[in-house]
Amino acid sequence: MKRTLSTRDVKIGMFIAEIDRPWIETPFRLQGFLLENVDQMRALQEYCREVVVDHTLSVGEHHSSKVIDVSARLLGLDGLPRSHPSDVESRLQASQFLNVARSFKGRIHTTRVAHVPRIRSEDGRSRLESELLYSAPIVDDVYRALREARMEIDSAGAVDVERLDGLVGEMASGVERNPDALLWLTRLKRTDHYAYDHALNVSVHAMVFARFVGLSSRQVRQVGLAGLLQDIGKVQIDYAILSKAGPLDDREFELVKAHVSNTVDLLRANEDFDSEVLGIIAAHHERFDGTGYPRGLAGMRIPLSAEIAGIVNTYCAMTRDRVYRDAVSSQRAMETLNQLRGTQFRDALVDQLLQCIGLYPIGTLVELNTGEVGVVVQQNQVRRLQPRVLVLLAPDKTIDRFPRTLDLIMQPLAHSGEPYRIVQALPPNAHGIDPADFFLV
To answer: What's the pTM?
Structure first.
């Protein structure tokens, strides 16, 4: 249950789900937060006139009467005993997720699911497994469209931008329903072609991030299309340069930088192509301190959507194997971006990306306080340190033949009587696990 209120009428205990301006323009680091003190209330009233309050996530007297018991127990703020699924239920949930995930291995989906996944009233999202099944054929269509775009460019034809824009619109709707599902699909649907994988990865992450910071639906779709197309100009660069294992010399680097103008020129051949999307693409390698290219723009001269495209492009590139560099973990990538805050990237943008991606992004291997090892399956909107985890290894690090999921926000109890919690994130391939493939065999 959501309703729009004047900030003069908000009360401590309300969950602020939406505000009337982009989140990045405010001091609030989370998209959606529980109003817990007077200082937060005053800041909210200073920056916003109206907000959307979600009563299913509010506490105390501001609970929705329909879900008072559920919300209170989830948040652990009502003093009632916390409930959690039984072991049988958690294993059933794991089985459902695994069955869906395994269905994607080596399979191209050509048949669309007839019905759009239903938005659940309890969390305002579609069910993860339903969204995975619905969006998988859309992602496959994106890959096909990217391959065809490459062939069109090679034959001096025009890119079918209208088709790609339509597919981005469908993915944007999926991001709105359940962003975790689209993030999972960027992992489950990887190909052996870096350019296509990177384009999809940037497009989805950019839309998730743009939505997180409060951009409009139109702007979310624009950054998604820009992310998908921003590197197509690289097809005009010698493959030997793009695949070079060592550092580029000055001449080679200048040729690589030309992919920005190449891309803009290719897309300008399409009549009525969105000029704002062109602007995002043209500026996605500009940097806040003016060290970027091609124009050396700095500060607020760089459009916010282009800043989003740029930081997401950098993050996604670091977390995927390249011919000249191995992938790093999400945590390591965020540490690197944090070192660039205030220079290449705006402070607030780095902070917001960290909040959006979270300390434990989708697909992250984590060690629990029981010694068990799992993979993060789904984020939690209210408490991002308490995601949904699929347990893969037992405490002795042997394979758990009957996996189960743990919704950590429910504070399920381990055999010791203590609630499960994450002790640390693990690097990719820890204990021989590839979280993108291990549980799909």
So the answer is: 0.77
- Written as six digits, the tokens of 205 are 């992450």
Kind and range of the H or E element at 424? Answer: strand 422-425
Q: Which residues contact 146 (CB under 8 A, 6 or more apart)?
A: 164, 195, 196, 199, 200, 228
pLDDT tens readout for residues 236-259: 888 888 888 788 888 999 999 999
Maximum C-alpha span of the chain: 67
C-beta neighbour count of 48 within 10 angstroms: 19
CA–CA gap between residue 276 and residue 282 (Å, rounded): 10
- Cα 341 → chain centroid: 20
Query: Cα–Cα distance between 241 and 312 in angstroms, integer?
Result: 23
Which of these, 144, 312, 333, 334, lies nearest to 231 by C-alpha position? Answer: 312
Structure-token pair, residue 124: 């305002």
For residue 375, the cross-strand partners are 365, 390
**Residue 323: CA count within 13 A, CB half-sphere:** 14
351: tokens are: 């902070």
Across 247-280, b (16+ Cβ under 10 Å) vs e yields eeeeebeebbbbbbebbbebbeeeeebbebbbbb
